């Protein structure tokens, strides 16, 4: 159902929205259930129910950027599909005001036998564009995708990267009022990943309504003013993104703490050897760890005494703004206990005309208390949002201490005898 564009109604409104799936143990049970209404089979149920969403009430106003967080299986993707109309609700309804573009399963609706051009025409028509609108935009869609040389070939001959680029180009260039993103803020690889990210940011800055579902709490808090936490098909918390992310992170930490040691939540059990992953227009070249001015492979430090320095070398496309760098320290079970980022410290990286640069991050009298930690390094865009490259668990940090203090950090403090006179 669509509202009138002249009426200042919510962009999305969910009313008592529920979705229940019927799960059958055997294919024959589906047939039995189909015949179930006939009296001679009796009143039996041949399926079990999985309630993916339960009684969701939600209102999103035009121009809001909403983050949706929750564990796998919590109902996030089901909610997005109901909003997009690819699923029908079991109960309740979703009211939508405006054209939706969805970055869910890109290219899922493409016919592999059709050419790229034919799939563009078909997809744009399904998304609600008129023939004249399609004619005006088709060349721009093809140019943005970068697959013009193959646009009249069947998409079954495309590489996976070409397939995704064309699907993204269609979705992002239909001038949607509402953009739904499941996980990826950018798609494709290399230069296209940066271009797709820039296009999404342009839509956000233009006041489009955005629903962003992600496991990256950092991106949710950075991009969204409001966030919604869904668990077991119900909304746990809906509010300011920093508040929701903090509450959800506490929930995840408790879950990790209660997990058995054999199945940590997100930890790597072995440090990587400066192994980078990710792609984009910039990359990490090497990372070196120094303790007390000595180059080391594995850091063994003393709490409150050792000096640690992380040297990071990178290269980037000199035609793009200079990237930023972040570092996190995690426990072995995957909990991030501290971080540092150049954009937060308003530190501008320097690079040569070739795009190469190097930066050092130093810690004097490292305040970490005893334990074993992992160091992660990230190379991001100038906004600190789009991830170019990452080196996770690049170093294993073992901290020793002389005393018996507990926790993760020794924070600056002082003791004083109470010499302040009491007022009677």
Automatic annotation (TrEMBL):
<dbReference type="Pfam" id="PF00005">
    <property type="entry name" value="ABC_tran"/>
</dbReference>
<keyword id="KW-0067">ATP-binding</keyword>
<dbReference type="GO" id="GO:0016887">
    <property type="term" value="F:ATP hydrolysis activity"/>
</dbReference>
<comment type="similarity">
    <text>Belongs to the ABC transporter superfamily.</text>
</comment>
<keyword id="KW-1003">Cell membrane</keyword>
<dbReference type="GO" id="GO:0016020">
    <property type="term" value="C:membrane"/>
</dbReference>
<keyword id="KW-0472">Membrane</keyword>
<dbReference type="InterPro" id="IPR027417">
    <property type="entry name" value="P-loop_NTPase"/>
</dbReference>
<protein>
    <submittedName>
        <fullName>Lipopolysaccharide transport system ATP-binding protein</fullName>
    </submittedName>
</protein>
<keyword id="KW-0547">Nucleotide-binding</keyword>
<dbReference type="GO" id="GO:0140359">
    <property type="term" value="F:ABC-type transporter activity"/>
</dbReference>
<dbReference type="InterPro" id="IPR029439">
    <property type="entry name" value="Wzt_C"/>
</dbReference>
<keyword id="KW-0813">Transport</keyword>
<feature type="domain" description="ABC transporter">
    <location>
        <begin position="12"/>
        <end position="257"/>
    </location>
</feature>
<dbReference type="InterPro" id="IPR003593">
    <property type="entry name" value="AAA+_ATPase"/>
</dbReference>
<dbReference type="Pfam" id="PF14524">
    <property type="entry name" value="Wzt_C"/>
</dbReference>
<dbReference type="InterPro" id="IPR050683">
    <property type="entry name" value="Bact_Polysacc_Export_ATP-bd"/>
</dbReference>
<dbReference type="InterPro" id="IPR003439">
    <property type="entry name" value="ABC_transporter-like_ATP-bd"/>
</dbReference>
<dbReference type="GO" id="GO:0005524">
    <property type="term" value="F:ATP binding"/>
</dbReference>
<dbReference type="InterPro" id="IPR015860">
    <property type="entry name" value="ABC_transpr_TagH-like"/>
</dbReference>
């Amino acid at each position: 159902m669509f509202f009138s564009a002249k009426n200042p109604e919510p962009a999305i409104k969910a009313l008592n929205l529920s979705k229940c799936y019927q799960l059958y143990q055997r294919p024959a049970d589906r047939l039995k259930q189909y015949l179930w209404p006939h009296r001679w089979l009796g009143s039996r149920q041949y399926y079990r129910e999985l309630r993916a969403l339960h009684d969701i009430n939600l209102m999103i106003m035009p121009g809001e950027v909403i983050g949706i967080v929750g564990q796998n299986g919590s109902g996030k993707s089901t909610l997005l599909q109901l909003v997009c109309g690819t699923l029908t609700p079991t109960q309740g309804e979703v009211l939508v005001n405006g054209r939706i573009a969805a970055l869910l399963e890109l290219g899922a609706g493409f016919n592999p036998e059709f050419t790229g051009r034919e799939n563009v025409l078909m997809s744009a028509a399904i998304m609600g564009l008129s023939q004249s609108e399609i004619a005006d935009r088709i060349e721009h869609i093809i140019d943005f995708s970068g697959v013009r040389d193959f646009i009249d070939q069947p998409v079954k001959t495309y590489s996976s990267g070409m397939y995704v680029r064309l699907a993204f180009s269609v979705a992002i260039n239909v001038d949607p009022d509402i953009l739904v993103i499941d996980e990826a803020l950018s798609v494709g690889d290399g230069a296209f990943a940066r271009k797709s990210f820039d296009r999404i940011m342009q839509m956000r800055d233009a006041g489009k309504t955005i629903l962003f579902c992600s496991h990256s709490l950092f991106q949710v808090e950075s991009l969204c003013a409001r966030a919604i936490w869904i668990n077991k098909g119900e909304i746990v918390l809906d509010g300011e993104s920093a508040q929701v992310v903090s509450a959800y992170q506490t929930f995840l930490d408790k879950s990790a703490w209660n997990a058995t040691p054999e199945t940590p939540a997100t930890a790597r059990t072995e440090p990587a050897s400066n192994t980078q992953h990710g792609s984009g227009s910039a990359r990490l070249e090497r990372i070196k760890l120094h303790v007390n001015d000595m180059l080391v492979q594995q850091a063994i430090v003393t709490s409150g005494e050792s000096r640690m320095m992380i040297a990071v070398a990178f290269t980037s496309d000199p035609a793009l703004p200079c990237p930023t760098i972040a570092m996190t320290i995690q426990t072995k079970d995957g909990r991030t206990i501290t971080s540092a980022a150049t954009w937060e410290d308003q530190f501008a990286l320097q690079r040569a005309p070739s795009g190469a640069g190097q930066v050092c991050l130093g810690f004097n009298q490292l305040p970490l208390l005893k334990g074993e930690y992992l160091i992660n390094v990230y190379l991001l865009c100038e906004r600190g949002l789009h991830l170019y490259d990452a080196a996770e668990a690049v170093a294993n940090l073992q901290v020793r201490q002389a005393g018996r203090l507990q926790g993760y950090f020794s924070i600056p403090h002082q003791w004083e005898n109470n010499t302040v006179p009491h007022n009677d």
